[in-house]
Amino acid sequence: MLDQLKIIQAKKEWLDSFRPLPLELLANLEQWLKVELTYSSNAIEGNTLTRSETAIIIEKGLTIGGKSIREHLEAENHAQAYDFVRGLVAKSRLEITLDDILQIHQLILFNIEPQHAGKFRNIPVRISGSLTVLPNPVKLPRLMVEFMSWLHAATEHPVIIASEAQYRLVTIHPFIDGNGRTARLLTNLLLLQMGYTPALIRPEDRVQYIQAIESASSSGSLELFHEVIFEAVERTLDIYLEAIQNTIRS
Q1: Fewer CB within 10 Å: N-end or C-end of the chain?
Q2: Are 15 and 174 in contact (CB under 8 A)?
Q3: pTM over 0.85
Q4: What number is the average pLDDT over the span 114-121?
Q5: Which domains does the chain have, with CATH numbers?
Q6: Is 78 part of the annotated catalytic residue set?
């Protein structure tokens, strides 16, 4: 795991050596990432929109025949939530508030489940196909206060903190729906704040991702989960570096 972290750090430093990136290249990469992260994060949760269909909805505002209203809203909402997260990047980690996380969640469920958007669940829930026991809803306010205290006090490497924040939020599971998408967006906020690229967990990584959460829940070790997130961060670093090299060659 430490070797993987060293590689990520080296690639970030290489990327930093090219900063500031050309504005046109940066805008293109950021728009691509917004679509890709929206498509991937929603697909992990079962949304059947393809990558190109997601792009059409986000960029053109068009509807896709044969797809549900909910799937359209999930694409629109995630894109808006990602824009909101980008707007929080100027904050430091110490300045992130619980209200920021609730606002991310509210955007994720906007017009889908408005009665639950931005609010803690008040009923017990289980993750389908998972043996993980989720906290009783009565405990959620205290657990989220403790989560924020941990987030502000953590001193590990920024990528480890971003990864662990996702795991902690997913396993607290404070919301009826939208926990995974909210947690992944929080991870990406933490990464962007520190100058890293977002973590891109692909739909084809879904089984490995879920198994890593299960492994951490049963063993108490986050090593496998960190490996999944580290690979997702390195993936986008490689995409940025390849785009820069292509620009230089042209």
Answers
A1: C
A2: no
A3: yes
A4: 97
A5: 2-249 (1.10.3290.10)
A6: no
